[in-house]
Amino acid sequence: MADNADADEIPDQRSINRFVQVCLGLTVLTGIGALLGAALPKSPTGGPDAPWMAAFLTLIFFLWAAIPAHGFGLLWSLFQYLFSSQRNKYRWPLLYFVAWFATAMVIAVISGLADPFFEHLSERKFRTANQAEVSMHKILQRPGDHSAALRLIAEGADVNLADRDFAMKPLHWATKNSSLEVVRALVNAGADVNSAYARSWDMNKATLVYPTPIDLAAFSAVEALGKIELLLERGAKASPQAMVGACLAGDKAMIEVLQAAGGDPVSAAEGEGLRCLHYAAGRGDVALVESLLAAGADPNQTSKYKGHPFDQAFKNQHMPVLLALARAGGGPRNPKTWIELFAQANDEEFEVLAAARPLAGSLDSAIARDFSRTLMSCELKNIQRLLDAGWLVSDTQRRKLRVPDHCEEREALLEAIGETGAD
User: Please, are residues 162 and 168 in contact by the beta-carbon 8 Å criterion?
Assistant: First the structure.
């Protein structure tokens, strides 16, 4: 009987040994796919080329074939090891499968593939341990009724604990979205009034770099002035970005409060270099523009992307601001803007702009082409204005001009630009 039992178990042992060989082959092929994917270069455009994609797909195929196969092999060998009368014969297959999964787990941890799993566990642990704080963050993240947050603060929720999604603290959210009452409750509970957010934040046409609560309060649409006064009273610093927010809002009282605390509206800038003069010009706030210019603001200060204050005012067609900037020596970043501006100005505005124009002498070919487009409109007055302002003084540029045949004042236009324009 014993011999018959041994004979019955030999085929199972042979089968599992062959299965181990199949799993080893899948592992080798997976390793080859991984090595090829790491060694083969991508295309010059940055995307995957055909060889790289082939290696990647090979890796995926064999990886998803190897994992289920090894899982089945582990269960099979474990079952035989536990319940077979010849368990020693299944020891090495079982050790192989256990070692394979242990190695796979180590590789996943080292390579970062297991990071989402650990982050999920950490997130669940954080939410379980800080249920009150998580609820308070969710309430403060959205504008609206924040009375529930007041209750959580009164019950002793941690007012300096940052959330896991945005790394924002309750006071950051409150100064941005909540009422003065909620901000006061957080400050009274010990919230750090100078705590900086660890990232950049885009809000209200401005980029704030590492904003503090007072920065977010200045850009808030809810009781901004009251929040700023409270934060300054409790030790917050009057930051340049908060001053920019006050200028963007055009709030004279807020500007004065920040100035009294040491803020400077002339030098204050947000993350992309936009200053108070940019925002005041873009809003058409002539009084603030003139005040900043009188305080020494550079009318031609540039931002990272958005040009001069003159460009901001021109985009929104604020002619009084353009005249104020022009009188102070300001101008557009692109000189071609002058041509379009001269063409739409009235006589008084034209005189101010023509006198302030910083360019003199010959113009480049690009501006000459813009002049040609103006000429196509057949408006003699505008052409004469540009010529009187000193545009297109060289004969070379004059020869590039063509007066359209359909212009009723063709003879006068030819006379204005000179005989060389008639060819």
Answer: yes
Residues 240, 263: contact at Cβ < 8 Å? yes
What tens digit of pLDDT does each residue of 169-204 get? 999 999 999 999 999 999 999 999 999 988 888 877
- The one-character DSSP state at 227 is H
Token representation of residue 401? 């001009």
Q: Which residues contact 213 (CB under 8 A, 6 or more apart)?
A: 171, 172, 174, 175, 183, 191, 193, 194, 195, 227, 231, 236
pLDDT band at 143 (very low <50, low <70, confident <90, very high): confident
169: left (phi over 0), alpha (psi -120 to 50) or beta: beta
pLDDT class of 293 with cuts at 50, 70, 90: very high
- pTM, entire model: 0.64
Handedness of CA 139, 145, 148, 149 (dihedral sign): positive
In 3D, which of 358, 330, 355, 333 has the Cα closest to residue 345? 355
Six-digit token pair at 288?
A: 């603030």
In this structure, are residues 336 and 310 in contact, taking their beta carbons and an 8 Å threshold? no
Name the nearest CA neighbour of 230 among 213, 247, 246: 213
Three-state DSSP at 269 gives: strand
Residue 333 has φ and ψ, to the nearest 5°, of: -70, -35
Q: What is the DSSP letter of 391?
A: -
Other C-beta atoms within 10 Å of 303: how many? 18
- The residues, ordered by sequence, that sit 6+ positions from 266 with a Cβ below 8 Å of its Cβ are 275, 276, 277, 292, 295, 296, 297
Give me 292's structure tokens: 């900043």
Residues whose CB is less than 8 angstroms from the CB of residue 291 and which lie 6 or more positions away in sequence, other chains included: none
> Which tens digit of pLDDT belongs to each residue from 295-325?
999 999 988 876 889 988 888 888 899 889 9
- Cα 382 to chain centroid distance, Å, stands at 43
As a whole number of angstroms, the distance between CA 422 and CA 79 comes to: 101
- Neighbour-count burial for 245-274, b at 16+ CB within 10 Å, e otherwise: bbbbbebeebbebbeebebebbebbbbeeb
